[in-house]
Amino acid sequence: MPPLTEISDSTPPSRALPWMTVLFVGSGCAALIYEIVWFQMLQFVIGSSAISLGFLLGSFMGGMCLGSLLLTRWISSRIHPLRVYAGLEFGIGIYGLVILFGMPLVGSLYSSHVGHGLASILLRGVVASVCLVPPTILMGATLPAIARSVDTSPQGISWLAYFYGGNIAGAVCGCLLAGFYLLRVYDLATATFVAVAINVCVALFALLLAVRMPYSSRLPDERQSEPAEESPGAWRAYAAIGLSGLCALGAEVIWTRQLSLMLGGTVYTFSMILAVFLVGLGIGSSFGARWSRSSSNPLLMLGGCQLLLAAAVAWAAWQLGNSLPYWPIMPMLSASPWLNFQLDLVRCLWAVLPSACLWGASFPLALAAVAARGQDPGRLVGRVYAANTVGAIIGAMAFSVVFIGWIGTQESQRLLIVLTAVAAVLALWPAGRATMGAHSEGAPRHTVPRLGKSVSTAGILVVMFWLAGSVPAVPGELICYGRNLPSDKGKGIILYQGEGLNSSVAVTMLLDGTRHFHVSGKVEASAEPQDMRVQKMLGHLPALLHPKPRSVLVVACGAGVTAGSFVVHPDIERIVICDIEPLVPRVVATYFANENYNVVHDKRVRIENDDARHFILTTDEKFDIITSDPIHPWMKGAATLYTKEYFELCKKRLNPGGMITQWVPLYESNPEVVKSELATLIAAFPEATVWGNPAAGQGHDVVVLAQADPLTVNVDQFMIRLDQDDYRDVAASLAYVGFSSGLDLLATYATRAVDLAPWLSDAEINYDRNLRLQYLAGLSLNSYREGAIYKDILAHRKFSDKIFTASDRRRAELLLRMGLPPN
User: Looking at the structure, do residues 375 and 459 belong to the same domain, yes or no?
Assistant: First the structure.
């Protein structure tokens, strides 16, 4: 790469092209930081269900598509491309700041007008569009803008591919920088400021290059004239690259779900998968750039890429279904997440990289197939990029919102193979005896006889259907045991498995008859004694300590045991269950009907299939109790239900005297994670108390009980209440999980917020702006220190006469059951 000082008015533009590639590295880095930040911010406004995120992704990519098409209509080719590029980068940075500070206002306006159902879904799409389309239009215009620096010769087209590859290389850096550092250590604001700084640096460097690189357009101003004629067969290249984009984003959706089963659905897993996909696109685009320069028939090579892609998709499907889940890898052997990340990276590369490379190579080959002398390079790039992006939008939304929940990942991958075959046929076999390869003057002409074309097409389709038939189904045990499959294989009998709209679920039964409910490779609930105990505590504690609870909101249905705990309470009149995955209440809960009192069919129950946070944000209803079925915070997206702002929302939805219970796991965790969870809830509810669920004398998990006012428990009245006839079923439900009397339940009291304050002094609060918890928890899923953590909590245990009032006899009994000395 030449020194910058060597670029002068007399220097040929090609001397500056490597520096222009560097610009795209910075631009791509900033764009991916924004994408990750904006997706995280908008989830708080429009929810994190598949439908909401589908609209979000569609809006983001739709803006990119519009930008690529509209630049040549809005901006004259007479203006220096680097100055246009600099203006776009400045604009993106400005919008980055506007979204950062304006999103809270959008959220407050949105929440005050939105409801539920189809109208709500459509409004979510409008919100996403208003927020994302303007800056993404500018992002989509950057490549067509700088494309005007080169011509449409094979040499110029190859440089366009290098620009595209540099943009992807920068995107990889941005993805890893945001996912593994900026958001893990800092917050959304810091990540945004870094992206803005990159935009500004790129813009200033572009202006410096513009001063040192002369530009004189020989193109007509296409805003006022007809565009130059494209190469013969251009429509086939557009169709092929559109289908290529559709399959690429569809595959990313499918493989992200399957890989997250195998690797653990942490925020780091999703960042790693995206980075690997981008690495493949970058590698492929570099090779595609070389091939487009040397090939006399890029359309033929584009078709060949699609043929190879069918095989690569089949390879990935076979690896993800029959090979990788069974590699003898035991993640629990190392508590270090960084060692496991290395293994995860290898498995991602092994499955995804071949396909990603071929998709990356397809874009420059499509450019070369469409290019003709005299074209505006900006218009050329804009149209090819738009075709690819339109396909990507359709693929992302269709597979995330429709196909996976409708036909499953196996049939969806078969559909991908068929679509790549269609793309190959479109590129390889033009109608009749049309000319191929006439993208540049003097290039040889090729024709394909009709009979040979028909025979070859039939042969390709036969091979493609054979490949599609070889795609395996997702292993049921992978849905059940995920990353622990090598050690837990054969542990239980699968009673049910299903791939829902938002997650994959399963129900298993052990040899002793115990049933487990699995979500995305993790046990979410079960009929095991320690799990039954905490699920019932989440319901019975607030229902018994509240003087007269009538309405309840349960976040996440799970096995239905927490929600079912309220069925036996005589004062309960209304139970709302909010679950993001429709399969859970509709199917899974029925396998635990005995344990949950068939709660989903109780006439007092209403089920909302929505993101719980979105429901709480937008509902006008208030409740006496809000609780949540166990959702482990290391699962991506769960941390939004553990933020201070979320708990403040819950407080607003409580009736006077209302209570909230929150599950806090001690297993697959570490002290920093537990401290963050407890301190965050206590920051919203300073009067919170902690109640333990020890298993075999060791800590397993705890329940936090919170309310606006200080908790007071009249022990004698509590016992009298449980002895009443209409509480007989409540007493039986408690006895089922080992609470032989009400004193046993009260004896699980561990500590109160004020006593725990010294231990929590160094805790990191989980805010919406940083989601610190998901980054802390994602590093601790192989940590099993529950006994030590629970011991630390109990070290701050003090009997409080301000909480418990009782007769001397009851007080002595309670102290004895707590294991505390009489005082």
Answer: yes
Our count of domains for the chain comes to 4
What value, to the nearest 5°, has the Cα angle with vertex 565 and ends 563 and 570?
110
**Closest-CA residue to 781 (of 539, 531, 446, 482):** 482
What's the rounded mean pLDDT across residues 402-426? 94
Q: Are 685 and 705 spatial neighbours (Cβ–Cβ below 8 Å)?
A: no
Higher pLDDT among residues 377 and 373, named by residue: 377
Cα–Cα distances in Å, from 258 out to 146, 473, 501, 505, 515? 38, 11, 14, 12, 24
Asked if 287 and 166 sit in the same domain, the reply is no
Q: How far apart are CA 420 and CA 403, in angstroms?
A: 17
What pLDDT, on the 0 to 100 scale, is given for residue 3?
45
Whether residues 495 and 458 share a domain: the answer is no
Sign, Cα dihedral of 256, 260, 266, 269? negative
Structure tokens that stand for 690 in this block? 């902690």
Overall residue count recorded for the chain in this entry: 823
Whether 4 is in a domain gets the answer no
- 45 burial type by CB count under 10 A (0-12 exposed, 13-18 middle, 19+ buried): buried
| Residue found by looking up tokens 């679920």 in the block | 505
With beta carbons less than 8 A apart as the criterion, state whether 49 and 610 touch.
yes
User: Angle 377-397/337-370 helices, nearest 10 degrees?
Assistant: 130
755 and 614 within one domain: yes
Asked whether 302 and 439 are in contact (CB, 8 A), the reply is no
Q: What is the mean pLDDT of residues 100-107?
A: 82
pLDDT in tens, 192-218: 999 999 999 999 999 998 888 877 665
Euclidean distance between CA atoms 110 and 464, whole angstroms: 47
Half-sphere exposure for 386 (CA within 13 Å, toward CB): 18
Q: Which of 444-448, 694-698, 757-761 has the highest mean pLDDT?
A: 757-761
pLDDT reported for residue 444? 47
Q: Give ∠ CA 540-617-653 in degrees, rounded to 5.
A: 40
Instruction: Look up residue 177 and give its two tokens.
Output: 């920088």
| 803 has a pLDDT exceeding 90 | yes
511 versus 44: the higher-pLDDT residue is 511
Structure tokens at 332: 């629990």
Give the residue carrying structure tokens 């090729």. Answer: 446
Domain that holds residue 496: 476-519
The distance of Cα 705 from the centroid of its chain, to the nearest Å, equals 30
For the segment 456-473, the average pLDDT, to the nearest whole number, is 85
Higher pLDDT, 191 or 293: 191
Q: What is the pLDDT of residue 445?
A: 47
* Alpha-carbon gap, residue 150 to 5, rounded angstroms: 21
Same domain for 370 and 515, yes or no, is no
Rounded CA-CA distance 447/433 in Å is: 5
Instruction: Please indicate, yes or no, whether residues 205 and 240 belong to a single structural domain of this protein.
Output: no
What does the pLDDT read at residue 477? Answer: 95
Helix (H) / strand (E) element for 499: namely strand 493-499
Q: 3-class DSSP state for residue 662?
A: strand
Cβ pair 212, 4 in contact under 8 A? yes
Confidence check: pLDDT of 283 > 80: yes
- Cα dihedral 327, 330, 331, 336 sign: negative
The span from the CA of 171 to the CA of 175, in Å, is 6
Identify whether residues 147 and 237 lie together within a single domain.
no
**CA atoms of 497 and 567, how far apart (whole Å):** 27
Q: What is the mean pLDDT of residues 294-316?
A: 92
- pLDDT of res. 42: 82
Alpha helices (H) in 264-297, listed in sequence order: 267-294
Cβ–Cβ < 8 Å for 456, 463: no
Helix (H) or strand (E) holding 752: strand 749-752
How much is the pLDDT for 432? 39
- Tell me, yes or no, whether 452 and 570 share the same domain: no
Helix, coil or strand: residue 552: strand
**Residue 339 pLDDT > 60:** yes
DSSP label at 440?
S
219-233, 361-375, 412-426: range with highest mean pLDDT: 412-426
